[in-house]
Protein: Ig domain protein group 2 domain protein
Amino acid sequence: MKKHASLLIIPSIIVNIVLGVFAIYNLTGNSFEIETLSHVKEAGIYGPSGLQVIEGDFTIESADVKLQNTVVTGNLYLTEGIGDGAVELNNVVVQGSTLVKGGGQNSIKLENVTLNELEVNREDGKVRVSLIGNTQVEKVILGGESILDVTELSEEGFLTEVYIQTASDVALAGDFKNIVVAQNSAQVQFLTGKADKLSTTPQARDAAIDLGDKVEIGLLEPGAPLKLTGEGLVKEMKVSAPGLVKVAVSIESLIASGRGIFIELVGGSIESFLVEESEGTVMIHLAEGTEVGSLELNGAAGITGKGEIKDARINAAGTTIEQTPGKVALAKDIKAEVGGKELPEKVEEKPPAPRQPSTPSTPSTPTVTLGSISNMSMGVGRTGTRDLSVSPGDANISVSSSNSNVASVSLSGNKITVTGNAAGSATITVTARKSGYNDRTRTFTVTVNQVRSFETGDERLSPGNTVVVVTLWHSDPQNYEVVVGSTPLRYLSDEKAFFGEVPDADASAGNVRVNRR
Structure:
């Protein structure tokens, strides 16, 4: 197409416009012809070998139409009358908006075209739109089932933004600058290419995005619960919106912070996983076969599953990691539960050396040394251990629970194992005895909880309501019902978590009730 500067001479040539119709000026040498035309209803090639200007809107209502060498000063409409047929635009500039409501799966081709906004919204079928050559489009809105192909754009061609606002299937192919998913339950398949940025809005709850082989996303920012699958690669992912993000792709860097966040890695791997400091606890589930290379916790996190963690650095209190990472480093004065053990582990106390009397006297009876034992907190069906520091080493040790229905206790060597059986608290008594020594008794308290975590989201999906995510310690939580206030929560079987919206006044852990179904 001619440079835009060449178009500036056209308005000065136009001297007569018939009101209410569209005038087409066909420049031929030093003369031009005027043809009044408002729409096309028959197949054919429209437009001269030079250049023409259509003042106002223009409508194409037939298949097998080619519009070329044309400037439309108003809007361009490709209507339902096209059916599954083909329409081609070549060397066309549309100064208004372009609406596509017809066309088939390989039929709308835009070559060397300049558009402000292109909306694709066929109600009864799939439309394939191809941007070719030096085509330049500011924004494409996909409002219906469609395929957007930009694989044939030249270096001078571009598409600034793709906006997806349909729950129908959408497929993308080529390189994109910015993709925004803004529809609840959107279904997006990224076939080939890459995107500098892909984001979802808070309205795009439960969107599903599949990345084809070798597809690469520079930055992914979900604004609502999301399911991400495929064979592609995400260079960087930032999660700060509440809800479940289910991931089955490879990610180089994942950063999470906020309340009510639940991330489940069901496939693929994460090279670097950072949990930033925030008021909430980020819940993470790593399925068997998944892998996290480097895990850094600057905020509290609860991590479950059988996925591998190679290196974990814990810089925040309130963290539990069900599996045992290859390497674990804790910041100063930070405690965490890792692999069923409390870290850092207690250093065994050495018994004091026996005192030697300066003068012969009747020796006093020594007392068995038994180190103090810290209290424990656990979930129903979970176990915890404590290692005992006893001297002499051959002292007899006995253990008992004040309420075995809540917490039972067993002893193996110098290790105590406590099992949480039901919600409540129990006192564990440990006594060490040896002939010729006074007995030593220690007690500690075990608190057993049904609720493992209670998280609330910062964003409100409905006025006056708060998003809550509750996880239980039960190994099979589907047999339980969770109610917050008077609102029952929905059970997410894949995540083994309960999710829902409750009135603001009820959104506290103290209002959680757990009942067996």
Observations:
- Residues 1-36 have pLDDT under 50 and may be disordered.
